[in-house]
Amino acid sequence: MIDDEIWSAIGDPTRRRMLDLLLANGGGTATSLSDQLPVTRQAVAKHLGVLDRAGLVHSTPSGRERRYTVDEDQLAHAIDQLAAVGQTWDRRLQRIKRIAESIQRQQDS
Question: What is the pLDDT of residue 3?
Fold first, then answer.
């Protein structure tokens, strides 16, 4: 079953980019992320809050800021869900293809 909160969180391209940056850098703060993104630190903090509520990141105190890291188990869960959705659509498209081919064969006869 699809977890709507996870998909809502990663549905935003800025949040997906933030996850990429956190994974690539082994974590980061709102300030370090805002230095790499075309949004303000405050906007980054709000995006991190969404990711945190979805369980995709965890934070720990780091001086006057919080350091965020990706929850790889929750991300793997999201990837598994996406793969399942992809398989469902592949099966649906194969059925549509078979129906279209059948119709074409009937029209050709």
Answer: 80
